[in-house]
Design brief:
single chain; 14 strands; two-stranded antiparallel ribbon; 310 residues; twelve-stranded antiparallel barrel; Porin; mainly beta
Length: 310
């Protein structure tokens, strides 16, 4: 089974919209250049320019290059297992089990993850495939085009992202549900000595399919070998039939990896049709995001997207 990736969404838990949950791409747009207050260049070598950032009020900060933690063989082995699992399960599904397998195909004016553009404010084409079992276990594959650095800053070789995940969803009470997932983020095609791949574990508690609280942890965010924590509170409220108002606020703690943390907020309207969803959303990040990511990837942005579901 071959995946062609296309999907756009601004929320923070990567799951196809067909399952009633949300999607979660990852951002990594490292700053490179000169400290505005000291004139000190943190990185001049193209091989490390993606792993440096500027903090103007801390000119003596030590910045360490990203290093590879997991060998490629482990990454490829994990990817193969999930893809084979999805393919075999789909092939064995009967007509009565068609609802277990779902997918999406979408295009949008931008792609954001936790408030940060994944495409340098350009279009995104994405796709997803998910298998959900009656037991609450699920697995999915997701992919998209990405662009993490402006053309003036060189090329890291990353033009696509592929995410594989396995998780468990359960109803705790009539209105309370929990969702726990292990996600593998992969970026094939990066140049030598650049490895963004990493794992993240995520847990979401939701109430009445309206309010949700999410926490996520990685011990190797962006392949840096450092830990990160992410927190988000969101809501989806029906305005009328097939129309929903979606809002969210989040905080991304990257102090161990980059010496900074930032927050963001988002709001949007989604109109659902029989086979597609049309959404328009607005997102903004705190000023501290510019200390970690390129300016083109931070700040205010308006996104329009269309997603086809099956």
């Amino acid at each position: 089974m071959l995946l062609v990736v296309l999907h756009i969404q601004y929320s923070d838990i990567r799951r196809p919209i067909t399952s009633g949950k949300w999607d979660l791409p990852i951002e990594r747009y490292r700053k490179n250049g000169w400290n505005s207050s000291t004139g000190q260049e943190y990185c001049g070598d193209p091989s490390c320019r993606l792993f440096r950032f500027v903090i103007s009020d801390r000119p003596n900060i030590e910045v360490v290059p990203v290093y590879k933690v997991l060998p490629k063989s482990i990454t490829l082995h994990g990817a193969t297992l999930v893809i084979v699992f999805l393919a075999n399960s789909a092939a064995g599904a009967t007509e009565e089990d068609e609802s277990l397998l779902s997918g999406s195909f979408a295009v949008g004016s931008d792609l954001t993850f936790r408030g940060i553009s994944q495409t340098m404010s350009n279009y995104a084409i994405e796709s997803s495939l998910e298998l959900s079992l009656p037991s609450g276990l699920y697995a999915y594959a997701w992919g998209s085009n990405v662009d993490f650095v402006p053309s003036s800053a060189g090329d890291d070789g990353a033009s696509h992202e592929i995410d594989l995940a396995a998780g468990y969803y359960a109803d705790l009470t009539e209105n309370l549900a929990v969702d726990i997932a292990l996600i593998r983020y992969m970026f094939p095609g990066t140049v030598s000595d650049v490895d963004y791949d990493f794992n993240e574990i995520m847990a979401t508690l939701s109430y009445a399919e309206t309010i949700s609280a999410t926490v996520a942890h990685s011990d190797n965010v962006d392949g840096t070998g450092s830990a990160s924590m992410f927190y988000r509170l969101g809501g989806s409220f029906g305005l009328r039939e097939n129309t929903a108002l979606e809002i969210g606020i989040g905080h991304y703690d990257l102090l161990n990896a980059y010496g900074e943390a930032y927050s963001y907020a988002e709001i949007g309207i989604k109109q659902s049709f029989e086979f597609a969803d049309v959404a328009i959303s607005y997102t903004d990040t705190s000023d501290s995001a510019e200390q970690i990511y390129y300016e083109q990837a931070t700040g205010q942005r308006l996104i329009v997207s269309v997603q086809f579901n099956w």
